[in-house]
Fold this protein.
Amino acid sequence: MAIGELLLIPGLVTDWTARDLQRGAERGTVERIARGAYVDRREWLRLREDERALLRALAHARRHPGAVLSHTSAALLHGLPVAIPSQLPEVLRRRSQHDLGGSAVRARSSVAPPAAVEVDGIAVVPVERTVVDLAASLPFREALAPLDGYLGRGGSRDALHDLLGGLRIRGARRAEMAIEHADGGAANGGESLSRGTVIELGFPQPEVQMPVEGSAHKTDLGWPEFLLRGELDGFQKYVDPRYTEGRSPAQIVFAEKRREDGIRLLTGHRFVRWTFDDALRAHPLRRALLRAGLPQRQRRTR
């Protein structure tokens, strides 16, 4: 099922009446995610934060056909990873806030606003301009996720540099740095955020998806010259049915331990693990890397 099919909007994408959905929200069987937009509560609880943000953006676009999704909302609709999605749909600013749906959105200004393209019938900022806008406006470590995703599906680094060079936008220097550090080999947004935090903290730049010789395994990040590998330990893989494959959390932990022991045996490398929150807060990740013996060099300028 496409995620947009979860939306329950009276008169648009469901046969339910507004009153039916209001009663469902009162009973707790449906979740109201925006004015006039609902999702079955059981489905809503299964979704990741980026999927919830995408649904909010889709709901706004379907109720306000003149809106043009931008920044993180556009990135999600383009299928790009976003480390920290906006809690409100992000749309290009119009002449009046009323055109945007009031305070239920985050209005984003744009230098030389681009012509919108359609993705699944919804108006969005084109993908290259979307990732350039994010590279210029987000902190370095957050900008890497959509950039990595764009390159990972065959996007052109040169095209981004050319586009950025033709725009006179605030944050252009930060955007250039983020574009240069982007890596299409990254597996997900959390890994990209982690790599960005590592670089911001002044640690040696890690290798992405570092292979394990003699096996099919890879580790999220690695520093071969320091005999060290690192992995983002996500909560989702222990509880989300899409990743657990019917296994209990204890079985998953045991399998992870056996995998890690096997990698240690094959490579002689040490392991360091962290969570998404560790990478987001930065200091816990710094402590973990220092305890693992990774030298911290001069902190880079943001």
